[in-house]
Amino acid sequence: MAFRAPIRRIALARPAFAPARAFHATPRAFVKVGDELPAVELFEDSPGNTVNLAEAFKAGDGYIIGVPGAFTGTCSSQHVPSYINHPRLKEAGQVFVVSVNDPFVMKAWRSQLDPAEQTGIRFLADPTAAFVKALDLSWDGGSAIFGGPRSSRFALKIENGKVSKTHIEPDATGADVSMAEKVLTK
């Protein structure tokens, strides 16, 4: 009789995250006018410096700009620069750029786009996509490309702690309706 090693069962690892959205017959329920901001902790410059946008907008109105990724082509060359260079930026109130990246990447990106830190735009990291998922503004960036869920490209006007206008790119990544020249109008 030959010796047989015991059979070892290997458990397959579950994905690190659930898909951002499975197939649905109903349209997406993106954030809409009148919605309050989710109370989610984001990070500015380091993991020790948290920012809750629901709390931050109690101090004044402004905008949240969502981008698919720091240092990506359209985000770095068109979308965020359209706000940095817009003549009405100073009138916009608080402006936050949010991306599904870590806080160190967001700090480096801010340093590249606004080296003198004169614009007042704050760059926040949403490393687990919890904030954009709560707004239903995430999409599956694919593990091979972006490593997981990403933020759609959007701009939200916030007044009195609530969303007063939405500018959401229909394909999640285009750069049209969320550009500063269409958002920062009177």
UniProtKB/TrEMBL annotation:
Xref: CDD domains: PRX5_like
InterPro entries associated with the record: PRX5-like, Redoxin, Thioredoxin-like_sf, Thioredoxin_domain
GO biological process annotation, one example: cell redox homeostasis
UniProt-recorded Gene Ontology molecular function terms: thioredoxin peroxidase activity
Assigned keywords, A-Z: Antioxidant, Oxidoreductase, Peroxidase, Redox-active center
GO cellular component entries: cytosol; mitochondrion; peroxisome
List of catalytic residues: 75
Residue ranges occupied by any Thioredoxin domain in the UniProt entry: 31-186
UniProt key word Nucleotide-binding: no
Family: Belongs to the peroxiredoxin family. Prx5 subfamily.
Database matches in PANTHER family: PEROXIREDOXIN (PTHR10430), PEROXISOMAL MEMBRANE ASSOCIATED PROTEIN 20 (PTHR10430:SF39)
Function: Thiol-specific peroxidase that catalyzes the reduction of hydrogen peroxide and organic hydroperoxides to water and alcohols, respectively. Plays a role in cell protection against oxidative stress by detoxifying peroxides.
Protein name per Swiss-Prot or TrEMBL: Redoxin
Organism in which the protein naturally occurs: Stachybotrys elegans
Lineage, top ranks: Eukaryota, Fungi, Dikarya, Ascomycota, Pezizomycotina
